[in-house]
Amino acid sequence: MPEAYQVYIFDKDNEVDALFAATYMPEEKIEVYLPQNTLSTDKNGNIIVISPQGRDMPEIRKKFTGIRYGDITLPVTQIIKTPAIVEGIVFRRYDDRMLGGIQVVAKDSTGRAFYTKSRLDGDYRFELPNEYGYRNDLVVSAGVGSLFPVVTKDAQFGGNFNLQLDFPLGPSKEFVEQGNLYIVKNNLTPIRTAFFNGSTTLFLLAKNDIVAVQRVAGNKLYGLVEIFWTDGNAEMISGWVRAQDVIYAGNYFLSPQDDLELAKQ
Predict the structure, then answer these.
(1) How far apart are CA 14 and CA 5, in angstroms?
(2) What sign does the CA torsion over 95, 96, 100, 105 have?
(3) Which among 104, 109, 106 is positioned nearest to 91, based on CA atoms?
(4) What is the pLDDT of residues 234-264, one digit of tens each?
(5) 3-state secondary structure of 175
(6) Which of 147, 162, 172, 186 is deepest in the core (most CB within 10 A)?
(7) How far apart are CA 124 and CA 160, in angstroms?
(8) What whole-number distance in Å separates Cα of residue 33 and Cα of residue 72?
């Protein structure tokens, strides 16, 4: 709730000298009394400005047409605190092609989630409640529900209400050149140091992680996985996976076509 309201009325051609200025308390009805012939009768020739006194409450400006005398009733205006905005683009890392139809999810530590999809030109936008501008528990993920490995980033506003987060999806061009691409079917899939059972597990792969296969030994595949660090750098790590744990990706991550039907599963 605002502590008070500053109310001004201006002629649209002169926003320096106010025709009216006053302070109202939240419980007061905003009523303004002006001498006859004060307001411009030109269409939208006057401006009323309402400035709520309180944190993160934007100024409200409305144009209106005046009359020589009589009553003017303006529409009710809702005061909404400044939203916390997250926006950016989603694109394919391989060739920087913009990706439309990719689901983007913003989620906080309580599990509350907000959903949107990237448009055809790859851009997305969230307008979140004001409180998120002061919180540090929000993460944003892109690629959810697609064949692309999900990319997740922390949304740290730091008191700023506009945050740009771009999401490159899929393998890099350098990685694609290492071998035939396969997609991991399930979470917690081990990648091992050797092809035989019982060999050391390097780490566990997530669903939709990508393996560039270079060699086959029976039902075991040897190849590389690409790890992206928070600083944007990548590292390729080699190991073995079982053939039944992956599926051939074909040219899905390379195709120039803007057909994302394969991304739906």
Answers:
(1) 21
(2) positive
(3) 104
(4) 899 999 999 999 999 887 777 654 444 444 4
(5) helix
(6) 147
(7) 19
(8) 10
Segment 194-208 shows an average pLDDT of 91
In sequence order, what are the beta bridge partners of 164?
87
- Let me know if 127 is exposed, middle or buried by CB neighbors in 10 A (0-12, 13-18, 19+): middle
Q: What is the pTM of this model?
A: 0.73
CB 187 within 8 A of CB 206: yes
Report the C-alpha gap between 91 and 93 in whole angstroms.
6
What H or E segment, with its residue span, contains residue 23? strand 20-24
Single-letter amino acid, residue 152: T
CA distances from 155 to 175, 192, 206 (A): 28, 34, 22
User: Are the CB atoms for 165 and 156 separated by under 8 Å?
Assistant: no
Amino acid at 195: F
CA distance linking residue 35 with residue 132, whole number of Å: 45
Residue 132, classed as helix, strand or coil, is helix
pLDDT tens column, 163-172:
999 999 999 9
Structure tokens at 9: 């009325």
Contacts of 253 (CB under 8 A, 6+ apart): 92, 94, 148, 170, 171, 176, 181, 210
Residue with the two structure tokens 């092809």: 195
Question: What is the token pair recorded at 214?
Answer: 């270079």
Tokens of 88: 């950016």
Which of 81, 87, 57, 91 has its CA nearest to residue 155?
87
Residue % of the chain over a pLDDT of 90: 71
Q: How many residues are listed for the chain in this entry? A: 265
